[in-house]
Amino acid sequence: MSVTIKSNREIELMREAGKILFDVHNELEKALKPGMSTLDIDRLGEELIRSYDCIPSFLNYNGYPASICVSLNDEVVHGIPNKKRIIHEGDIVSLDAGVIYKGYQSDAARTYGVGEVSEEARRLMDVTKQSFFEGIKFAKAGNHLYDISKAIQKYVESNGFSIVRDLVGHGIGSELHEEPQIPNFKPMGRGIKLQPGMTLAIEPMVNAGAYDVWWLEDDWTVVSQDGSLSAHYENTVLITEGEPELLSLPKNS
Predict the structure, then answer these.
(1) pLDDT, tens digit, for every residue of 145-177?
(2) CA separation (Å) from 207 to 16, 141, 173, 231?
(3) From 3.30.1360.180, 2.70.70.10, 3.30.565.10, 3.90.230.10, which CATH number describes the 8-246 domain?
């Protein structure tokens, strides 16, 4: 396994990509409202990304036809925007987006509630987000990769939810998906030792019911098999000599 260690220049470019992506997510959150189509979100997202002289990471990536993955309710990830897919009050909406800035990538996802959502939905979103932060407590040089995985799984399951196992996080840099793969559950072994300069996209995907998923006929959209709600939270993370730096969640945010 070859995991790239980024130079100071590469880190600076990825830091800028992360700041831009943070701003894009903020604007998308403000725009989300009942009555919009998922295609409306995608068009706004692409417009925002290009306004920063960036390229949408996802557009045409392995054939994916949009710039923003828009996943509603029981959709885990990779929902394809569609003008007929309308967002309603009470829905939860996962937005996964990536930008390429001067050849370097940032990747981040958020799940938002639209208007008043159920107590279960609110708790699912909160636990999913917090599981990311529980995981990155271990995202430090000298620790092992699966220390992160174990902490995410433990927090999610202690709150009565399930971690999706068919999808994982990944390294990131000049490519959207680089080594290593980053499970959100603890596999056998310990994983690689973390080193300063590694850049990782850590992304818990959490179901309110069982962890089993399947792919719809479009070959992209992943849904919970039991129809339960699903949430997603992701940031691009830099391993440093000390605390991890969240490139897509700037400190002053």
Answers:
(1) 999 999 999 999 999 999 999 999 999 999 999
(2) 32, 30, 28, 7
(3) 3.90.230.10
